[in-house]
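re: ur msg from earlier - yeah i can do the FE2/S2 (inorganic) cluster complex, just paste it... oh wait u already did. ok heres what im feeding in:
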Amino acid sequence: MEAYSEKVMEHFTNPRNVGEIENPDGCGTVGNAKCGDIMQMTIKVEHDIITDVKFKTFGCGAAIATSSMATEMVKGKTIDEALELTNKAVAEALDGLPPVKIHCSMLAEQAIHAAVADYKQKHPDKAAV
Ligand code: FES
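and the outut:
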């Protein structure tokens, strides 16, 4: 079995931004087609900037670590910048993931996309399309 990087272990044991934002501006819940695990992201948005983001997951350690890193990466970014975040960039920021766990990192990317889509749908006036 391939080992996890120190950064993965660190985010897994000490995940950032766990929980759920009350009255979020956007909420996205996605399931992983491969393992059936679930991820929810809630975001707070001001002037198209993600000011806060939290995640909850019924997912494995790799899903927790990638979501933790992904939330750190999108906080303070515009919603359109957040849409450009890829699971590959998240995995790279964590110094890589074992190939069998790459699908786990998709949850974070997809949940952020879903939360931003939800925000745009609820705020069609504010969202830059
Ligand atoms: Fe399901 Fe990792 S095994 S998210």
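cool cool. The chain has a mean pLDDT of 94. ping me if u need the other ligands too
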